[in-house]
Design goal:
Elements lengths: L3 H15 L7 H15 L9 E9 L2 E11 L2 E8 L8 H14 L3 E5 L3 E6 L6 H4 E6 L7 H5 L3 H6 L1 H21 L1 H16 L4 H22 L13 E2 L11 E7 L4 H7 L1 E5 L9 E6 L5 E11 L25 E5 L5 E8 L11 E4 H6 L7
Parallel strand pairs: 3-4, 7-13, 8-10
Antiparallel strand pairs: 1-2, 2-3, 4-5, 5-6, 8-14, 9-12, 10-11, 11-12, 11-13
């Protein structure tokens, strides 16, 4: 998750750069603001996940986008950078949107280091049709929820897609509300006349019109426009920092990427088979493709007895019990012990990914070069 200290560093960097006298340079804007920003959001510039000057075939010519953010060997976000002083025109927005449409990449970004615009290229060809979120980067951390949508984690887990669906539903509701204004005014008039008994039709109509206006304003104010609230931060640590903990047995559970949300939501993991003789003190989560590494760690607070039914679950909501199986257990972690490794343990080969529970020790976790060492 996005680190608060990194956010503050980005904000200070933007402020310093704005006064540097080099704000008319696209290259300086990239190096001083845009690239650090993308790195803060989890995109590794030293890996194949970030490709510079990404080529796109447009008709008979090839154009290049400043950055392509790539997962599972496919571009998932295109990013076009402009100088800090560039006002970001409609034509620049339409250009990156068109590149996304040519390449069949849903998410496209246009930024000058002060403003960052995320476009859903499937929604249309113009900025007005496609604009999903506009972020004032000088206004962070107030807009960190919106910025988080562009993070590697959000794209990987599909949170940005969920936000898009929520926004689409909201916009549909707003269109319906506006299209049926006359109908609503008539309904308000009927209710007011019935309740007040007044015969002053012009007065009732005026009040009904004002009620409609206020209704629309309230609906817009409280509508869910998509961006999620800021997610509680999970600290990033090196595995070497765990050396201060007492030695003990550790259980490693495998998960798909989408399962990580369960861990974060409940500070717990379920549902697992654990024998009576096993008494692990520590928990780690192996996340499958494309992570393919042991990425999360926590200290165990308690492990439930084998569960006979969902009724025995104390902290897990019904909506998250799809994988419940009778006889399995839930691992609950101690508060504030869940961490993410900055040096996760990778698999040795594609065939050596974890497919079931593995027991090991804290010492082996700290010193492992790959999962075979566990």
């Amino acid at each position: 998750m996005v680190n608060q200290l990194l956010i503050e560093k980005i904000v200070k960097g933007i402020s310093r750069f704005s006064q540097s006298g080099r704000t008319n340079s696209e290259e300086n804007t990239k190096k001083k603001i845009i690239e650090p920003l993308l790195e803060m959001l989890g995109w590794d510039f030293l890996s194949a996940e970030v490709q510079l000057e990404y080529p796109i075939r447009v008709g008979t010519r090839t154009v290049h986008v400043d950055y392509a953010l790539i997962l599972e060997d496919k571009p998932v976000v295109l990013v076009e950078a402009k100088p800090f002083d560039d006002p970001l025109s409609d034509s620049e927005a339409e250009q990156i949107i068109s590149y996304g449409r040519f390449e069949e990449v849903k998410w496209a970004v246009l930024t000058n280091g002060r403003v960052l615009k995320i476009f859903n290229t499937e929604e249309g060809r113009t900025e007005k049709e496609s604009l999903f979120v506009e972020i004032n980067l000088e206004n962070l951390p107030q807009q960190i929820g919106e910025l988080y949508l562009l993070s590697r984690e959000s794209v990987l887990t599909g949170e940005i897609e969920n936000a898009a669906k929520r926004m689409a539903a909201t916009m549909k509701s707003m269109r319906n509300l506006r299209q049926r204004q006359d109908e609503l005014v008539e309904e308000f008039k009927k209710i007011l006349i019935r309740i007040t008994g007044t015969e002053d039709v012009s007065h009732v109509e005026n009040v009904a019109t004002q009620l409609l206006k206020r209704t629309i304003e309230l609906f817009e104010t409280h509508a869910d426009r998509g961006p999620p609230p800021t997610v509680a931060e999970i600290p990033l640590i090196s595995r070497k920092e765990l050396q201060t903990l007492p030695p003990g047995e550790l259980i490693i559970c495998p998960s798909r990427t989408e399962g990580v949300e369960f861990l974060k939501k409940y500070n717990a993991w379920g549902f697992v088979n654990i024998g009576k003789s096993q008494k692990p003190k520590y928990f780690a989560l192996y996340v499958g493709v494309p992570e393919s590494s042991v990425l999360y760690f926590g200290e165990i607070e308690s492990i439930t007895q084998p569960l006979e039914s969902k009724d025995e679950l104390k902290r897990i909501q019904e909506e998250d019990t799809d994988t419940f199986v009778r006889g399995k257990r839930v691992i609950h972690l101690k508060s504030n012990t869940l961490v993410t490794f900055i040096d996760p343990i990778p698999i040795k080969t594609r065939r050596s990914g974890l497919r079931g529970i593995k027991y090991t020790t804290l010492e082996k976790l700290v010193n492992a070069d790959n999962t075979d060492d566990l």
